[in-house]
Amino acid sequence: MSRMQVQEKIYIAGHRGMVGSAIKRKLEKEGFQNFLFRTSSELDLRDQAAVHAFFETHKPDHVFLAAAKVGGILANNTYRAEFIYDNLMIQNNIIHAAYKSGVKKLMFLGSSCIYPKMATQPMQEDALLTGLLEPTNEPYAIAKIAGIKMCDAYRAQYGCNFISVMPTNLYGPNDNYDLEKSHVLPALIRKFHEAKKKKKPSVMMWGTGTPKREFLHVDDLADACYYLMNTYDEQGFVNIGVGEDIAIKDLALLIKKVVDYDGNIEHDLTKPDGTPRKLMNVSKLHSTGWKAKITLEDGIKAVYESLQSKSWY
Ligand code: GFB
Questions:
Q1: Which of the chain's ends, N or C, has fewer CB atoms near its CB within 10 Å?
Q2: How far is the CA of 117 from the centre of ligand 1 (A)?
């Protein structure tokens, strides 16, 4: 096992997204400077020839594959074709080009929605492919499962050091606050803030509020990714989470408290609940020696305090 060296060339695919930008901040803090970055208009990762040319020309040593088409429950369910096509194309092109150009190590980032809808909780890595997926995000999950299996296949046949990690639901700087496309945590921060500002009597949340989710601050994720990139060299994947979940209704109450809003909460029952529960088993992660540090309340407070520059704030 060899640690990443600060002079080595690092390509972070998706460096402007929430995950990629957090990995960038972490690596900069660790002294890395030799980065390759491309925006989606400079390099369309769905374009096989362009991706291969980029890798052949620049030959990165290490790759963090954090580029993906992502979104909340409604976006996943609405743009089903885009979620499977874009994600398969991006990851196929990058993983194959990484093999061809001799990348030393690649990390593929997935998502906790890869597990069966009714997986035993907390979900352990070996529950993968043991049951049917949650329908609202099946196209995205199929792409992410293909990414894990592709890394494993390239490791088995070609000896590539490609690893996969599966983060739970994430939040933090550079999150998406578009109310139709975002995940629940940023959506509720915005809804409560706007209701407070406009003195609205209530906030409308989606679904029943009974589903439970686990939330990890993206700076903790980036810390775990850096740690695993230096210490983990196996096939399969590692769950990255905090090991605790919260009902969406209780998350709403926590955000209401942080935002200091005193109105009511209503439910739009035309919107889907999605998976009833999605809690990661983090035993494997903890056995590597890594644990999350940022509590949910502290994380939400930090995010809320950093939003003044948003147009809707
Ligand atoms: O975060 P979220 O969109 O995605 O929704 P998933 C989580 C829960 O919060 C659902 C409820 O039960 C929503 O109905 N919810 C309540 C809200 N109010 C809102 C709101 O204003 N906005 C949103 N977005 N939700 C996604 C997957 O699933 O999570 C992806 O579709 C991926 O594939 C990602 O895995 C991490 O947790 O249900």
A1: N
A2: 14
The answer to whether 203 touches 191, Cβ cutoff 8 Å, is yes
Residues within a 6 A CB radius of ligand 1: 72-73, 76, 111-113, 136-137, 140, 169, 182-184, 187-188, 205-207, 211, 213, 248, 271-275
Q: Are 112 and 220 within one domain?
A: yes
Question: How do residues 244-295 score in pLDDT, each as one tens digit?
Answer: 999 999 999 999 999 999 999 999 999 999 999 999 999 999 999 999 999 9
Query: Do strands 215-217 and 62-65 pair parallel, antiparallel, or not at all (unpaired)?
Result: unpaired
Q: Which pLDDT does position 2 carry in this prediction?
A: 77
The span from the CA of 139 to the CA of 82, in Å, is: 9
**Which pLDDT tens digit goes with each residue over 49-72?**
999 999 999 999 999 999 999 999
Question: Quick one: which atom of ligand 1 is closest to the CA of 213?
Answer: 37
Average pLDDT of the chain, as a whole number: 97
Model pTM score: 0.97
Number of helices (H), then strands (E), belonging to the chain: the values are: 10, 13
The protein residue whose alpha carbon is closest to atom 22 in ligand 1 is: 184
Look at ligand 1, atom 16, and give the residue with the nearest C-alpha.
Answer: 206
**32: containing domain:** 10-172+214-243+279-294
Q: Which ligand 1 atom sits closest to the C-alpha of 273? A: 12
